[in-house]
Amino acid sequence: MRSILAPIAAAIILSPALAQPSDPKWTLELDSVFTNQNLNDVRVRGDNGTKFSMNNLTGKGTFRSARFQATYEGSSGTGYRFLYAPFRISGNGFLNGATNFKGVTFGTSDPVNGIYQFNSYRLTWRNRWKQGPNSDWRIGATLKVRDAEIRLATLSQAAEDTNIGLVPLLHIYGEEKISDRLTFIFDMDGLAAPQGRAFDIGLSLAYQLDDVQSLVLGYRTLEGGVDNDRVFNFFWGNSLTVGYRARF
To answer: What's the predicted TM-score (pTM) here?
Structure first.
């Protein structure tokens, strides 16, 4: 946990150098993420492979990762966001039955090392939807780049499937001020289509330390997957997030 929280502590220490302008346009946020995966089912190839659960190899968690995002909001209400959210886990376990994974058959007698990676890079455009004395809501579109890898290996054989692809998503973001220091935040990237679906939904509370800094505590759920001839993979995970945010 120290390695995950250290960047947040460093940001807090260095943040006094940031001065609060009368109209802040930039927001930087760094979150530590603690994830439990409720579901992670895989079949590769999607048309003739064997379905199995990555949970049997990696366990359900808790897995530690991080999220970094930088947002620019213009005076006109138009904004842009860049998000980087890496996720990579691994573990050793036994498969429930003979498993055909990308043309390689893994048995049940030997332990199997499983690696699951789903790194996400996102670029968002959004515009103000509605604004009130204590609220600010925006809607837009996100272009997500997924960097995915699934790998199985024993001492004698190995197989992996990698994929880099573009996914368009609907984006919704909102803030509701609860008190002078406390703000509720909702954010979502998500869309469903015949090819698959992806939903990343966050609910959080930001506690304002001063004019620049806030501490953020939140809950996030990530659900989605794809089912085609090349790959079948559906994932559902729930996360606790602890973060630091600076506006300047």
So the answer is: 0.86
